[in-house]
Amino acid sequence: MKNLLIVDGHNLLFQMFYGMPSRITNKEGKAIHGVMGFVGALIKIIKMTDAAHIIVVFDGEQENERVNLSPDYKANRVDYSAIPDDENPFSQLCDIYAALDFMKIRYVEATDFEADDVIASYVHRYSGEVQVFISSFDSDFFQLISDAVFVLRYRGKNTVTCDAAYVQSKYGVLPEQYADFKSLTGDSADNIKGAEKVGPKTAAALINQFGSLQGVLDNIDRIEKPSVMQSVLRNKERLQMNYSLIKLDYRQVPIFDLIELDCAYSGIATHGVLRGIGVLG
Questions:
Q1: Burial 122-152 (b: 16+ CB within 10 A, else e)
Q2: What 3-state DSSP class applies to 191?
Q3: Element (H or E) spanning 33, and its range?
């Protein structure tokens, strides 16, 4: 079976921009460490996954529809509009797009939905035809894991490929229960508050006992610990909203055919790509 690699573009950009050991500039003094790290990591990820097809998905500038459900959603994120270029990951995004064009790798910028939903749509469309590797540190993608879908957390030699056993071992729930689990615990990365008195172990126990978040909410009176029962009851509406925020669903978004995502990367090294797009100066 061939492999489809889906890269969470902004996630990899941020990882490389802030994770490179030093700030690298070209001859004109322009910072290029983000694009250099991105291209270098992408080349290694392609080799790791033996990708036959590739798509890189970036978030757009559109209004986030989940904010309509909760104004607090991702309200903790940094506003980069007033941050100087030298400190701004997005200042190198155009060079990354140019590098992807040079490497003949397809990419999209999500316009009507979040990048996470676009990635979920590609998984829904192609996981029955190919093995899918999602390259990202966003744990929300754990809910998409199946026998044919894996989440790759790139850390060079310490890279981890997450499967169903990984999710069960780490969180005590099945991948398809991950959104239910996170609805109870909350997600600080997205500024989503869970139910008080419900930590990861308690959330996993509730999900395993009742099968899903809805199962928990339908059986609140059967929750044994009074403080947990009262917390779930008190936060019932919020928990239902949390699930709507966290759950990734297939969306009616334009999808490239697999043949359009064929990996045409020729094996050229990172510096060759950067020279090819004129970034090295």
A1: bbbbbbeebbbbbbbbbbbbbbbbeebbbbb
A2: coil
A3: helix 33-49
Among 96, 93, 86, which Cα is nearest to 42's?
A: 96
261 shares a domain with 227: no
Tens digit of pLDDT for each residue in 12-60? 999 999 987 777 888 888 888 999 999 999 999 999 999 999 999 998 7
Q: Identify the helix (H) or strand (E) that includes residue 4.
A: strand 3-8
142 and 184 assigned to the same domain: no
Contact 33, 16 (CB under 8 A): yes
Question: Tokens 């590098």 label which residue?
Answer: 99
Number of other CB atoms surrounding residue 208 within 10 Å: 13
Whether 281 is in a domain gets the answer no
Please tell me the predicted confidence (pLDDT) of residue 28. Answer: 84
Tell me, what's the pLDDT at 210? Answer: 98
CATH number of the structural domain spanning residue 241:
1.10.150.20
The token pair at 192 is 């989503």
- Residue 160 CB neighbour total at 10 angstroms: 11
Do 37 and 123 reside in the same domain of the chain? yes
Task: Give residue 155's domain range.
Answer: 3-168+249-276
Domain count, the chain: 2
Greater confidence (45 vs 89) lies with 45
For 176-222, the pLDDT digits (tens) are: 999 999 999 999 888 889 999 999 999 999 999 999 999 999 999 99
Q: Whose CA is closest to 277, among 15, 26, 106, 43?
A: 26
Non-local (6+) Cβ contacts of 263 within 8 A are 5, 46, 51, 52, 53, 54, 105
Model confidence, pTM = 0.93
